[in-house]
Every structure is written in C-alpha cells, then in structure tokens.
Specification:
Blueprint (H helix, E strand, L loop, with lengths): L13 E3 H8 L3 H10 L11 E3 H15 L8 E3 L4 E3 L5 E8 L2 E7 L6 E7 L3 H4 L4 E3 L21 H8 L1
Parallel strand pairs: 5-8
Antiparallel strand pairs: 1-2, 3-4, 5-6, 6-7
Helix pairs in contact: 1-2
Amino acid sequence: MKRINLGRIKINRSYTIVEAARALGVHKKTVRRWIGRGLPTCDNARPTLLLGRALRDFLLQQQLASKQPCQYGQLFCVRCRAPKSPAGRMVDFIPKTPTSGYLRGICPDCGTLIHRALTTVGLKQATAGLEVAFPRAQLRLSDTSRALENVAFSREATNHAEA
C-alpha cells in the first residue's frame, strides 16, 4: 500500500468519496475499494459520507498491517518484499554520519542488495549473529596544489615548448 499523508484528513469533518480522494491524492475508485474492505460510512444515503476520524483510523490500521519489521539479524529485501537474513550471514556497515549508517548484504533468495538503516548505538544489537565488515573509506579526490597561472593553451605555445 502506498504511503498516504494522513495529516490532510481532519478528524472532525465528513468527506464525500471525491473529497476524500482529492485530499489524499488517490483515485475515487481507491476510496470505494476501501469502503468494500471495511471503511465505515455514515449511512447508506447518497452521497456517501465518510467521517474523518473513521477514515484516518482505517488507513492507520492498513499501514500497520502492511508493515514487516525486521528482527535482529535481518535486513529488508525490496524485491522479495520481506525481511531476510543475508546470504552467508555477512553484512557491511556503511557509515553515513558519525552516529548513523546502514547495513548492506545480499538477499539469499533473489541475489539483490538488501539494506537496513540504523544508528551506531543499535549496531551491536541489530547485528546479532551476523558477521559485520567495516569497509575502508573510499579515497576522495582532492588537490591542494596551486592552479596554473599565465599558461597559454594554443598550438603556437605548444610548438614553442617542443623546440
């Protein structure tokens, strides 16, 4: 299920199907499908009205039901759409900031890279049972020498230099 901004729904307001769809940035048929899945309506009269509180609660329940939290020693595979233990129980820790980074491994089923973001404080607990490698930092390009000054880049200048 696509992530929806619930802050646009006011809990003390009622919405028609079209208004709810517009506020959430989805199609009106999507809202009708939610009604078929159990989203409560005010009554059976037309136009169909949805209470803001009921709509927000329904969408929160849908989002919570679709979450698949990773257990310790697992990373999330986007292709398989499930938490997986990395192949060979080996991962790399890639630092992003001094206090956070992510784990990177290989999915044992599909072979794609799998990831898990975490802080350095939770590193030991999240990597229980995994062999963690800390790759060396990549060298960055840096040149501290002074820029060339008064250099002529023409054919004549190169011909004179050769002679």
